[in-house]
Write a structure and sequence with these properties.
The chain has four helices and eight strands; from the N terminus they run αβββββαββααβ. It has 134 residues and is an alpha+beta fold. The model has no long low-confidence stretch (mean pLDDT 95). Pfam families: F420H2_quin_red (PF04075).
Amino acid sequence: MLYGKEHVQRYRETNGAEGHDWNNTTVLLLTTKGRKSGRPYTTPLIYQKHGEDHVVVASKGGDPDHPQWYKNLLADPEVEVQVLGDKFPARARTASPEEKPELWGLMTRTWPDYDEYQKKTDRDIPIVVLERVG
């Protein structure tokens, strides 16, 4: 089972042939810039398409704190996304309260554990919309 750095490496080496389809769902690679270091960090994340956008969830398994990648994109929303062999620049934004119910439903249909993660924490788990730039 692919996880973490190994997941990123195999995904990149195979243009997603290994790593895009994972546990009956789909995964993209999100690269953010470290808010302190300025270095690029790449995270494999479950995603779904919503129109032209890609949607991911900043769940961190229901941890009380946001994942590092989410904190990074709050500091700098200019990110890189890779879906299979397609790498593109994107702008990340947190879904609005009006958008969130529809997008939460989209994401829990693909990964039902998100509902359990939300029950484990008082933190309002953000949904992130990745909008292709250019």
